[in-house]
Amino acid sequence: MTVTESQKYRLIFLAALCFLASVIVAPTFLKGDLPEWWPGKPIKLGLDLRGGSYFVLHVKTEEAVKGHLVTLASSLKSELRKDKVGVLRARQEGERGIEVQLLTQEGTEQVDAYLKRIEPGMSRVATEESSEGGKKLRYELNQKRSVEIRKESVDQSIEVVRRRVDQYGVAEPTIQKSGEERTLVQLPDVTDLSTVRETIGKLAKLEFRMVAEGSSSAGTVEKRRKAGGMLRVEDQARLTGREIKSARIEIDPQSHEIAVSLEFNATGSELFDRITSENVGKRFAILLDDLVYSDPVIRERISQGRAQISGGFTKEEAHQLAVVLRSGALPAPLEVGEQRVVGATLGADSIKSGVTAALVGTALVVAFMLIYYKRSGAQAIVCTVVNLLVLLASLSLFGATLTLPGIGGLALTIGMAVDSNIIIFERIRDELRLGSSVRAAIEAGFHKAHWTILDANFTTLLSGLILYSFGTGPIKGFAVTLSLGVITTIFAALFVSKLAYEVVNMTDKDGKLSI
Amino acid sequence: MQILSKETNIDFIGRRHLLVFLSAFLTAISIYVWVQAGDAKFGVDFRGGFEYVVKFSGDVKLQDLRDGLKSGGFGDALVQNFEGAQREFSIRLKADDNAKVDETSKKVKAEFAKLQGVTFEILKEDYVGPIIGDQIKRDGIKAFIVSLVGILIYVTVQFNFTWALGAVLALIHDAVIATGATILFNIELSGATLAAVLTITGYSVNDTIIIYDRIRENLREKERGGSAGKKGLAEKLKPMNLMQVMNFSINQTLARTIITSLTVVIVCLALWLFGNSSVSELAFTLLIGVICGTYSTMFIACPTILVLQKKVSTK
Asked: How many angstroms separate the CA atoms of A45 and A500, rounded?
């Protein structure tokens, strides 16, 4: 049998491709037996095959803006008092506002000036006379700045989550931004979320509020004590966790009491300095996630920007707190939008059944092809094997994740790939029936089937791409194998199949085509 | 081996009235089943809320489980057990707006723990909150519509608009019946179902295109009076009207149509019977869809073209 130049090159190309593909695919099947330098890694398994958890957290960014304004209001009040401006109160109001109540008609310019300096995004939107004889000023944060703070809080939250997850030593965690205000977290192999998620989502909302004095309940709120009972505190925090720079666990050597020692950043230190100097002798409460941990008396002005919380922590609580504080407090609360946990048992089960199903399906198709199309059928099978090989290699190369539906997609690709060969074969049969010679029938068969194959596979590819863009998780995996499968199928049907027919003698002894 | 060694001459289109009626009937059933099943047909992806798939170390009575959950405050839980097994159950809970994911999980697991004499293992647990649930639903609908529009455009470009309408109508028919069958077999509608439906839309139109292709080729040969080696064919086609050409084309490609569907059906059967959870569900919907897809070209797409063409020519 003589081979033309073109056929020779094509054969070499095919052989090289198969070899390369085998090399890439090998790690998936022969995990431990390959030497270190072997290129390629095993195919990534999706959570539904590996077991693990996946969750999407909504970052409640409105709270981040509010938190920012709470601190702003607090420092505003402090600053005004320092400059002897008669301010009754300054508090965060609504989604983006601050309300300042002045005792007299004076002071508006100072408030304006201070805010302009510290937070240029604020502008005065209302001025009214207050019933107590002074002025009520209302300021609002502009849209642009609000959006900025919200964006920052999302990025910050992701960072905090990342740091917290890191401390759990999860293998290959995925933490990424998903859309405007969401964080996507994937923790392979972690199936018990009860402690992990609590830690990750722990707001670590740290607040310092002055304890309410006097009997008036105006401007105060009741908060629960960790040790039991309630405490009345001011309804706005003076200082929040946003001003914390770092935190450490300290164990008192004598009492063995576990305490958390905090260090403030520049803004925080300044604020803390002022608060403590203005309020010596008064009590202030330290709250963590809305629980009062302690309410010590301010004995003296503290200018170094340090504070300590001790409040009857258990070892576990302290540990959790350590993880949480070391990674920084969350600038905004996180809400679970979606969560999926797959147990390892189910994962292993799925792999087994998925692979079995795929193999059974493939075996049946192979058997059918051999019986129905005889030697041409055998060639179709070789074609399909190459198809599958290239497909698996592509998956590995692109770092695609294989999911349970993805395995289904592989099997489906085989079923559909065979279609392309069938189109060609039936065309060839048609031509033979019309009386063409073997050679002519083959040529005509491929030629006519060309466009039909492209046409037919194109719509499947279109579906696959749409599925990919709209689907999530396991379904995306299906879409990937389906779409890639279509491409490799077209290649296999038009290139490999043709080459096989040209090169391999498929006629039986009577010179008739074995089809 | 060939199953159809002689040329067949089944009058598909001629019998269309009976089969369109059958299709309409199946479609009606599917719609009825859809409406009847109400909210419970949706899996957690579309319904939102929680789903727990739990396996016990021993047999547990469905009623005991239900009672236990009810006492824990989960009276409206949907509890199902998997075929045959008295040990594996799926429990679905609706989530209200303030659902605390971890709290609910703890409570539910506590109820499992209370069951006498068995230990439990959570195989899988899912939660979909309202915001993301809405998004999944919207995305699902969008994906389906985009698919249909995409195919409409594609087939119009390749053939013409009337033919495209026929193809799309056939597709919708396939999707509806496949979904109906899925609900009937007590399979939750989930992301996997959607994936199957989208795959059906992409795959089943292949079939339609191939037959359309043949019809067009035959129409061309008829016009042309036959190209080289095809004089005999042209002779045959000359006296035929559109309906007869369609019939002829379908019969010509019948072997191919059946075989290509067969290979995909074989794979789907294997995946459905041997696979588990998401792949099995996907495979079932796909199976029905592919079977429908095979005959929908003949009995929905082609008749639609005939009806529309008649309307056009009588205008």
From this structure: 34
Taking the C-alpha atoms of residue A164 and residue A7, their distance in angstroms, rounded to an integer, is 59
CA-atom Rg of chain A in angstroms: 35
Q: Which of A466, A476, A486, A514 to mutate to test the interface with B (most CBs of B within 10 A)?
A: A466
What Cα–Cα distance (Å) separates residue A154 from each residue in A60, A120, A157?
A: 9, 22, 5
Q: Among B143, B268, B279, whose Cβ lies nearest the Cβ of A354?
A: B279
Encode pLDDT of A91-113 as tens digits.
888 888 888 888 888 788 888 88
Give me the residue from A197, A357, A452 closest to B102, CB to CB: A197
**Rounded Cα distance, A412 and A481, in Å:** 9
Q: For A460, which of B124, B203, B282 is closest by C-beta distance?
A: B203
Contact (CB<8Å) A455/B213 = yes
Domains of chain A: 5-51+343-503 (1.20.1640.10), 62-145 (3.30.70.990), 156-339 (3.30.1360.200)
Q: In angstroms, what separates the C-alpha of B60 from chain A's closest C-alpha?
A: 20
Q: pLDDT tens for residues A218-239?
A: 777 888 887 778 888 887 888 8
Partner-chain contact B201 A365, CB within 8 Å:
no
pTM reported for the whole predicted model: 0.79
Which domains, from first to last, does chain B contain? 16-41+133-314 (1.20.1640.10), 49-128 (3.30.70.3400)
Q: Is A133 helix (H, G, I), strand (E, B) or coil?
A: coil
Instruction: Determine the distance in angstroms separating the CA of A216 from the nearest CA of chain B, rounded to an integer.
Output: 33
Query: Does residue A464 belong to the interface with chain B, where contact is any CB pair within 8 Å?
Result: yes
| CA separation for the pair B234, B219 (Å, rounded) | 9
Q: What's the N-to-C CA distance of chain B in angstroms?
A: 49
Reported ipTM: the value is: 0.82
Residue in chain A nearest B193 by alpha carbon = A475
